[in-house]
Amino acid sequence: MRRADGSPVRVLVVDDEATLSELVSMALRMEGWDIRTAADGTEAVRVAREFRPDAVVLDVMLPDLTGLEVLRRLRSEVPNLPVLFLTAKDAVEDRIAGLTAGGDDYVTKPFSLEEVALRLRALLRRAGGVAGPSGSTLVVGDLTLDEDSREVHRGGDLVPLTATEFELLRYLMRNPKRVLSKAQILDRVWSYDFGGQANIVELYISYLRKKIDADREPMIHTMRGAGYVLKPAG
Q1: Contact 98/105 with Cβ under 8 angstroms?
Q2: CA distance 10 to 191
Q3: pTM (two decimals)
Q4: What pLDDT, on a 0 to 100 scale, did the predictor assign at position 67?
Q5: Quick check: is 103 in a domain?
Q6: DSSP 112-147
Q7: Within a domain: residue 2?
Q8: Which of 34, 64, 134, 144 could serve as a FRET partner for 151 with CA atoms 20 to 30 Å apart?
């Protein structure tokens, strides 16, 4: 896996545990990727500005700033930057807090290095950060999605989306008028069962609705007990 220009994928690893940071970095370098590290939040923001990573592995608990604060600062400069959280917490509310703040994925310590690499590969694919075949333009009603430029428009208006929101919408638009279950969406968009937490689908559907359907006739519909469907308005 390489960047679209053929250069190595760039990943920033942020963790104050030196041993863990080095293990993760070593595993990702074995993927052929260019890795930089940071031991605290302030350093992470500085390194990200210089390094311009394609993805970030970010510990939630850091000695200065929280991981969520670091995420907010990174996303203020690069809105679609894919972020994988590392945390020792395993409560559902912690997962949702991180994802609400904009994180794309979440692994709980202890984790396997293979799992971190697997999830990063999935995030990079969703973000369009790696080389791949040319896409196309999807059209449903007045909603258009360009797979090459990764731009979405509704009624001619640009709709900014995060990497995960884009992938979720693309899946819905590739299956217009078809009811998709939460399990199907989890498997396609997240590429694995997100700890059995199907409510992550509800969370991201709500994000999409606020952006796609805001002040417009709804296109995303809930089919109670069955899943979700996207269809032209009217």
Answers
A1: no
A2: 21
A3: 0.58
A4: 84
A5: yes
A6: -HHHHHHHHHHHHHHHT-S------EEEETTEEEET
A7: no
A8: 34
Per the structure block, which two tokens stand in for 98?
């991180």
> Residues 178, 111: one domain?
no
Q: Does residue 132 belong to any structural domain of this protein? A: no
Q: Pick the closest to residue 186 from 168, 170, 211 (CA basis).
A: 168
pLDDT band at 143, cuts 50/70/90? very high
Among 148, 149, 145, 150, smallest CA distance to 212 is for 145
* Matching residue, tokens 């390194």: 47
Distance between the two ends of the chain, CA-based, in angstroms?
42
Identify whether residues 14 and 122 lie together within a single domain: yes
pLDDT (average), residues 122-141:
71
CB 229 within 8 A of CB 180: yes
Residues 175, 98 share a domain: no
Which residue, of 78, 104, 127, is where some domain finishes?
A: 127
Last residue of a domain, one of 70, 103, 127: 127
Query: 141 lies in which domain range?
Result: 137-230
pLDDT tens, residue by residue, 4-63: 777 889 999 999 999 999 999 998 998 889 999 999 999 999 999 999 999 999 998 899
Distance, in Å, from the CA atom of 46 to the CA atom of 24, rounded to the nearest integer, reads 20
Kindly give the residue spans of alpha helices, DSSP state H, lying in the chain: 18-29, 41-51, 67-77, 92-100, 113-127, 163-174, 182-185, 199-212
Domain count for the chain? 2
User: What is the per-residue pLDDT across 164-217, written as a single tens digit (0 to 9) for each?
Assistant: 888 899 889 988 999 999 888 887 777 554 445 668 889 899 999 999 998 899
CB 137, CB 145: distance < 8 Å: yes
